[in-house]
Each structure stands twice: as C-alpha cells, then as structure tokens.
Specification:
The structure holds two protein chains of two kinds. Chain A is an alpha+beta fold. Chain A has six helices and eleven strands. In chain A, strands 1, 2, 3, 4, 5, 6, 7 and 8 form an eight-stranded mixed beta sheet that branches. The N and C termini of chain A lie far apart (67 Å). By secondary structure, chain B is mainly α. Chain B has two domains: 90 residues, Rna Polymerase Sigma Factor, Chain: A, CATH 1.10.1740.10; 64 residues, Orthogonal Bundle (Arc Repressor Mutant, subunit A). Chain B is 84% helix and 0% strand. Chain B contains nine helices and no strands. The longest helix of chain B is centred in the C-terminal third of the chain and has 24 residues. Chain B starts with a helix and ends with a helix. In chain B, 35% of the residues are buried. Classes of the chains: A alpha+beta, B mainly alpha. Chains A and B meet through helix 1 and helix 2 of A and helix 1, helix 2, helix 3, helix 4 and helix 6 of B.
C-alpha cells in the first residue's frame, strides 16, 4: 500500500490556487443573479428621468460617462433609445453597461414595464460590480461586465430585442434574454402564448435533444450535456425558454453559456423548422408570428 | 445547503479536477462549470439524495469533457519531463504518477475516489451509476494494472 500512500501524497499536495475561493464564490453568485432576474414582477413606473437620476448618483463615486443616444429610428413607430454607464477603474476592472429604452409604443403600460425591467437589471449588474470591485482590485484580478443589447428583428409587425450580459472573471459567462413585441397590437409575445397548449414543450425539447445528439455525433468538438450523464442531462426546455422570432418568421430558442453545454460552447441557439411545430401554433402560419 | 457544501469542499473538488486536467486554468474552469451546472440542476430538480455523490458525478463528467476537448496529454508529459530534470528526488513519484496517468479514466476515477477522497464503494457506485460489484472489480483491476506497470518499468 506504500505506493498508494505516495500517490495520495502527490494528490494531496496539489497546489490550491489563491483565486479558487473567489472563483467558486463568483460561480455561485452568477447563477444566483441569473435566476434572480425574472419577468413578471410587479411593475413600477420608471421614466427616463429616473434613469438619469440613478446614473447621476453613480457619478459621485466613479469616473463615469453617460451617453443618451438616439439610435436611427427603428421601425415606423417604436424607437429604441439607450443609456449607458461605464466604470473604468483600470485595464483589468471595468464595466460597460448599456440598456435599451423603448419609446413610441402605443401601450404605455407595456412600454413602462419593459423599461423598468431593463433599468432594474442594469442597476443590479452595476451594484454587483461595485460590490465585487474592491475585492478584485485587492487581489489584482480581472473583473469585467459588458452588457448591451442587439435588435434581432425589426419588421412592421415585430420587434425582438436581445439583451446580453458578459461577466468576466478569468473565464466569462454570458446570458442573453430576449423580448419580442407585437408592435401593432402592443403586446409582449411569450413562448406559451404562441402555442395552443403545453405540448410545445415536449415537441421542442425532443427536437433539440435530437439535434444536440446528431451534432455531437458528427463533430467531436461539440459537447452538450445530454444523454448518458443522467443527473444533469438536458431533458426539457423551460416553459418560458429564452426565444426570439427572426425576420423570416422562424422561432429561435436560445440557451445561455453553461445552460446546456460546457462553457467553451458559449451561447447556443437553435432555429426551429416551422413544419415541426405548425400544428401546435395558435395562429396559422399565414396569420401568426411564425412563418413557414 | 448546496452552496455551503460547494464552499466547504472546493479544495477537494479542485484537486479532483486537477487530477484530470493537469492544468490550473482548466481545473478552475472545470470547477466553475461544475458549480454552475450543479446549481442550475438543483434549482430545477430540487435536492439530490446524496449531495456528495451527485456533485462528484457532475465534476467527473465535466472534467472528462474537458480532457476530451483539450487533449493536452502530450504537452503535459513534456512539462513533467522538464520538472523531472530539475528535481531528481522526485523520480520515484514521477514513475508512480505516470503509471497512474496512463490508467484509463474508468480505473483512475475509482482509485482517486476510494483512496484519495475516501469515498465508500457504495458511494462510488452511485457517483458512476454502476453497481457495487462492477466498481470493486474495476478497483482491483486498476490496482493490478498499476502494479504491473510499475514492475515493467523496474525491469528496464
């Protein structure tokens, strides 16, 4: 058994890096944060003015820049403005958080609700960043938060906005959330709202599992958490899985980094062929949001 | 509960990850990936029956994914050679380590869990999703392979 003792000694003497503690805490916090941000909370009315007050307060402690910019008008009716705040402590510690502000929606309640949500999330990001900053500077580490938005689709009918957050502490994590709005009706489109009943969850999950397995079989570099790893294998999409609708009317489901695959796979999206879901849609593909 | 477990056992988890990846960066990535995967699953499916076995299972699968992806084995051995040249008194350990590393994962995992992490055979069976007899057989086979390998080296 001496050999084993020797091996154990080598194993036990594995050097523990200083940043382990921090990285572990960071991972815990990241997962918490992602789950802490949820749609459907009660909406207070937030105006652009309150955003400016908030960023004004930021100014007291940090070198700070704010730009209120009006993007080229998006669509005929809805405009997307943005505000941002940057914190640049040094090369290694910086935050760039830009949030969209929607204006021009006929339904002001919806507009306010969305803008409030964007504001709350950006503020939470900022607060987390400030909280961690001191610790990181002390450790001479890296901390970066990069958050912004992308207009995925903008047609006469639909506006899809994706908001992303990239957290960098050594390795990075990325989350993306989408909102898809019916501009004509002034409503927020939800995933369950597209379908007649819950059957879509299984249909889409099955399609995604099949796609993951076939991609893994054809390409060694792809790994998804599906199949033999029974404890944490992907089994089902969330009823409110992150999604958007493309200009061509295709449904796209999105999974955050780490959600269904190892970190190096990044954010993963699957475009769903309309024919596999057409019988489940509330509206026919002639009239609805999803097109053939 | 899971958070406390993770914080408390982080060093053991890191060592386990390192025994697969042999690189600090990759081992840290494996630990981070595993934590995020575990916390998500925990939120979705609730608490597992046996936290420790459950977490090790996630950790080991994640580590194997990484080694499959990175295939750093050749580089690793080169680094070891350089290390060896600097520290001759490590020679014996080097032999042992090499033998251990040459073991297929199926055997290595069991030896690490049983002797280094002090898990019971029944717990290891749970981690690996195998029955107890399979685990025992592999453990003995693994030890046997280690010894055989050592002897062959001695004859050179």
């Amino acid at each position: 058994m001496n050999k084993l003792d020797d091996l154990k000694k080598i194993y036990d003497s594995t050097e523990i890096p200083d940043e382990l503690e921090f990285k572990v805490r960071q991972s815990i916090r990241r997962t918490k944060m992602k789950n802490g941000i949820q749609l459907g909370k009660k909406f207070a009315i937030a105006s652009v003015a309150s955003l400016i007050i908030f960023t004004g307060m930021v100014n007291i402690n940090q070198s700070f820049a704010m730009a209120m910019s009006e993007l080229p008008v998006i669509g005929a009716v809805v405009k997307v403005l943005s505000y941002r705040f940057d914190v640049i402590e040094n090369d290694n510690v910086n935050a760039d958080i830009e949030a969209p502000v929607i204006s021009g929606l006929e339904d002001e309640v919806l507009e306010n609700a969305l803008n409030e949500k964007y504001y709350e999330e950006s503020k939470a990001l900022y607060d987390d960043f400030i909280e961690e900053m001191g610790e990181i500077i002390e450790m001479d580490g890296h901390l970066g938060v990069d958050s912004g938005y992308v207009v995925m689709t903008d047609t006469d009918k639909i506006l899809s906005i994706g908001r992303y957050v990239v957290n960098t502490v050594g390795s990075s994590s990325t989350t993306v959330q989408y909102d898809t709005i019916d501009k004509e009706e002034g409503i927020l489109i939800t995933l369950p709202g597209l379908f007649k009943d819950d059957a879509y969850i299984k249909r889409l999950s099955d399609y995604i599992i099949e796609t993951m397995k076939s991609e893994m079989a054809n390409d060694d570099s792809k790994v998804y958490w599906v199949g033999d790893d029974q404890f944490s294998s992907f089994e089902s999409i969330d009823a409110n899985q992150s999604f958007y609708i493309t200009e061509e009317g295709k449904l796209v489901l999105s999974f955050d980094k780490y959600e269904i695959a190892p970190g190096y796979m990044g954010v993963i999206t699957f475009e769903i062929p309309t024919e596999i879901i057409s019988d489940l849609l509330v509206n026919s593909t002639d009239e609805g949001y999803v097109k053939p | 509960m899971l958070q406390q477990y993770i914080l408390k056992n982080k060093e053991a988890h890191y060592k386990m990850a390192f025994s697969y990846t042999k690189s600090k960066e990759d081992a840290l990535d494996v630990v981070q990936d595993s934590i995020e995967k575990a916390l998500r699953s925990y939120k979705k499916n609730g608490a597992p029956d046996h936290l420790n076995s459950w977490f090790y299972r996630i950790l080991i699968n994640t580590a194997i994914d990484y080694t499959r992806k990175n295939k750093r084995i050749t580089l690793m051995e080169q680094e070891k050679m350089e290390f060896l040249l600097e520290a001759e008194d490590q020679y014996r350990n080097f032999d042992l380590e090499t033998a251990m590393e040459k073991l297929p994962n199926a055997y290595k995992t069991i030896i690490v869990l049983r002797f280094f992490e002090d898990l019971k055979i029944s717990d290891i069976a749970e981690v690996l999703g195998e029955n107890v007899n399979t685990v025992k057989t592999r453990l003995y086979k693994g030890l046997e392979l280690l010894k055989i390998e050592m002897k062959e080296d001695d004859n050179e």
